[in-house]
TrEMBL record, chain A:
The lineage of its organism: Bacteria, Bacillati, Bacillota, Bacilli, Bacillales. It catalyses: 4 Fe(II)-[cytochrome c] + O2 + 8 H(+)(in) = 4 Fe(III)-[cytochrome c] + 2 H2O + 4 H(+)(out). GO terms for cellular component: cell envelope; membrane. It is found in: Cell envelope. One of its GO terms (molecular function) is copper ion binding. The chain crosses the membrane at residues 7-28. This is Cytochrome aa3 subunit 2. Subunits I and II form the functional core of the enzyme complex. Electrons originating in cytochrome c are transferred via heme a and Cu(A) to the binuclear center formed by heme a3 and Cu(B).
TrEMBL record, chain B:
It holds the Pfam family COX1. It comes from Virgibacillus oceani. Signal peptide: none annotated. This is Cytochrome c oxidase subunit I. The chain crosses the membrane at residues 28-50, 62-85, 106-126, 146-168, 180-207, 227-251, 263-281, 296-320, 346-365, 385-408, 420-442, 470-491, 523-543. Keywords: Electron transport, Membrane, Respiratory chain, Transmembrane, Transmembrane helix, Transport.
Length: 153, 559
């Protein structure tokens, strides 16, 4: 092979390795990995299974909240949540029917919520405002209506 | 040297005999279906773009998600599949001196199976029995006939794969000690990858049929999703491999140059075939039920596909520069001006190649763990695959039409048709930049994909996306205009252009270039390596998904 070709391949592979080191450091050392919770649940008995038998928001620490949420065509339970500015919110979610997506526009909150699986994701809401929460995986005719808000005061 | 002589001899025979009429019929039939599909899918694309931007309301008898399902299936599956088979079989016929009669039968069988399959699946979509989008994630349950239609499509693909394998083997047996012509080598890569990629979706669909009929009560949604992406992401890389066959082998001839070092070209094909299938996992980066360490492994596996693509970038720039300099291009960039920009057979694939630079970069964003979380399921992703598939792949396909169809139909490309092709290319490029560009931007702001027009109760965040959606609608309008011109050009070149002989533009190696090494032909070994990579990627997560599975989901219809 030509010398330039060899250099090019070496640089390409080198960039790939550096990239993996950075991504790996962020994921495992800084805890920035994507939502990957592995607990499961019977998708047909969500209402009877703890903690989803009582979906809602509860305060679990100093300005830290836990939101137990079910997603179903075409809504979120509970909806229209309010938290104080600076609050850390831990979402625990599952789906009662088909696959949904949980996205809060303007934040990095983005997770798939699937029947049979419990998904977890956390976020600290520093900036006050009314955040738009929406389903970003097609879930049926009313998919475009599936939204709610989180108000940070 | 002996090899080049044999190649030349073969090319001379083909030149004397012209195109093999029975083989041309196979290719022309596939291409006709491809462009009929493009027209319908394109119209649906515009309808969708305008509805999404709130510029148009759909009549009550059809809904946005039906249109979206049909658009996805027709363009991403049917158009690209039928074009690929038509083009690859023409390459094979040309490179190997004609198809075997047995192989033609396989191609026709595949054609009939696919037509039946597409009619069944699309009918269900039209009847609103299958508004499940082209990913048909369970537990959304379509009518069983929809899945049965998909089985027919996959069987058709398998038939075409087997045809290619038979012809390839036959040629190799009759030419001991010779490497196959490059175009045939590419065809082999495309169909080997296609064969193994299709296994994932076949297993998925076969489990969904009894489930959608109510014979089996529940299904494992996680496994279904994983098997879909085993196939789904490989499929787009198959289109990409098809496009690169034209970049490496056809484009150099059109610009009056020579192709790049054959050893590197073959290495790129082999790497793309071996490394591809695990790439599908990056569609599941924010899924529950897959651990962070497995996801990290797959980030690496997905990104490794970037290496052969970077090799392609290097090789293509080298080929372009050499050709430009040979024509007298001076200085650092003078060679650029010497390239035949007015020739649509070059212009279209050239823009396609340039589009792969942002396309590939966007792909790296999608693949990488935490960045994926920012854009997952937003319009960014839609923008991404319209740049990669809609530009890099489809513009290469369009460029191919301007020599392939006259060649097959024994007609000539007229200067007027070339001019129309250049105009089409410009319209398409502008349309895609507007549409895909605004989709990327809207996606970064959070605008979700696969959602019909909505302002979420006039939420200010959602209202801020609307201007981008207007630009998207303008882009979609230009693109439909592009589709209409392209379909007109194809019909004209098939039936009305002046009769004559068009050459099949296959480039030759540089003078004194070393011949391709024989070891590249060891397909048995490449398949074993492919299976090893698939095993590394899939055994642990799929076993985990099955062993630690939650109770399954029943079929659900939410439309």
């Amino acid at each position: 092979m030509h010398r330039l070709e060899e250099m090019w391949i070496a640089i390409s592979t080198g960039i790939l390795i550096i990239f993996m080191v950075v991504v790996g450091y962020q994921t495992f050392a800084l805890g920035m990995g994507p939502p990957s919770n592995k607990e499961t649940i019977d998708p047909q008995k969500v209402d009877q299974t703890e903690p989803f038998d009582e979906p809602g928001i509860s305060k679990i620490g100093d300005n830290e909240y836990e939101v137990v949420m079910t997603l179903q065509a075409f809504g979120f339970t509970p909806n229209n949540i309010e938290v104080p500015a600076g609050a850390k919110v831990n979402f625990i979610m599952t789906s009662k029917d088909v696959t949904h997506g949980f996205q809060i526009a303007g934040t990095n909150i983005n997770a798939m919520v699937m029947p049979g699986h419990i998904q977890k994701i956390s976020h600290t809401f520093d900036k006050p405002g009314e955040y738009l929460v929406l389903c970003n995986e097609y879930c049926g005719t009313g998919h475009q209506l599936m939204s709610t808000t989180i108000t940070v005061k | 040297m002996k090899q080049t002589q044999a190649l030349n001899l073969q090319q001379k025979t083909i030149k004397a005999l012209g195109v093999n009429t029975s083989d041309a019929k196979v290719s022309l039939s596939y291409l006709s279906v491809a462009f009929l599909t493009l027209l319908i899918g394109g119209i649906l694309g515009l309808v969708q773009g305008l509805e999404r931007a709130g510029l148009m309301e759909l009549p009550p008898w059809i809904n946005y998600y039906q249109v979206l399902t049909a658009h996805g299936i027709l363009l991403l599956l049917v158009f690209s599949t039928t074009f690929t088979i038509g083009y690859q079989y023409a390459n094979l016929s040309h490179a190997l001196g004609g198809l075997l009669p047995k192989v033609r039968k396989f191609a026709w069988t595949g054609f009939i199976l696919m037509v039946i399959g597409v009619v069944l699946a699309v009918t269900m979509v039209v009847l609103n029995e299958a508004s499940v989008l082209y990913t048909f994630y369970p537990p959304l349950a379509a009518h069983p006939v929809f899945y049965i239609g998909l089985v027919f499509v996959v069987l058709g693909i398998f038939a075409c794969c087997i045809g290619v394998f038979i012809n390839y083997r036959h040629w190799r047996k009759n030419h001991p000690g010779q490497t196959t012509p490059l175009l045939a080598f590419f065809a082999m890569g495309v169909f080997v990858l296609w064969f193994f990629a299709s296994i994932g979706v076949t297993v998925e669909v076969l489990t969904l049929i009894p489930w959608s009929m109510g014979i089996v009560e529940t299904t494992n949604v996680m496994v279904g999703r994983t098997l879909f992406w085993w196939f789904g992401h490989s499929l787009v890389n198959i289109w990409y491999l098809v496009a690169t066959s034209a970049w490496y082998v056809i484009v150099p001839k059109i610009i009056g140059g020579r192709h790049f070092n054959e050893k590197l070209i073959r290495l790129v094909v082999i790497l793309l075939v071996i490394l591809n299938i695990p790439g599908g996992f990056h569609h599941q980066i924010i899924d529950p039920g897959i651990s962070e360490s497995i996801k990290f492994l797959h980030v690496f596996m997905s990104l490794s596909i970037a290496v052969p693509s970077l090799m392609t970038a290097f090789a293509m720039f080298a080929v372009l520069e050499r050709a430009g300099r040979r024509k007298g291009g001076k200085g650092l960039l003078g060679w650029i001006g010497k390239l035949p920009w007015g020739d649509v057979r070059f212009l279209a694939p050239m823009i396609a190649m340039i589009a792969f630079i942002p396309g590939g970069a966007g792909g790296i964003v999608n693949t990488s763990n935490q960045m994926n979380q920012v854009i997952h399921n937003t319009l960014w992703v839609v923008g991404h695959f319209h740049v990669t598939v809609g530009m890099s792949v489809v513009m290469t396909f369009f460029g191919i039409c301007y020599w392939l169809i006259p060649y097959l139909a024994k007609r000539k490309l007229t200067p007027q048709m070339n001019r129309l092709g250049v105009i089409q290319t410009i319209i398409w490029t502008v349309g895609m930049i507007l549409m895909a560009g605004s989709q990327h931007l809207a996606g970064l702001l959070g605008d979700p994909r696969r959602t019909s027009y909505t302002t979420y109760g006039d939420h200010p965040t959602a209202l801020s996306w609307v201007p981008y959606e207007y630009v998207m609608g303008i882009g979609a309008t230009l693109l439909l205009l592009g589709v209409i011109i392209q379909v007109y050009a194809v019909i004209n070149m098939m039936f009305f252009a002046p009769k004559g002989k068009t050459a099949f533009p296959v480039s030759e190696p540089e003078d004194g270039a070393p011949s391709a090494p024989m070891w590249t032909e060891r397909w048995g070994l490449w398949v074993v390596l492919l299976l090893m990579v698939v095993a590394m990627a899939y055994v642990v997560p799929i076993v985990d998904m099955i062993v630690n599975a939650p109770p399954g989901s029943p079929p659900i219809r939410t439309w």
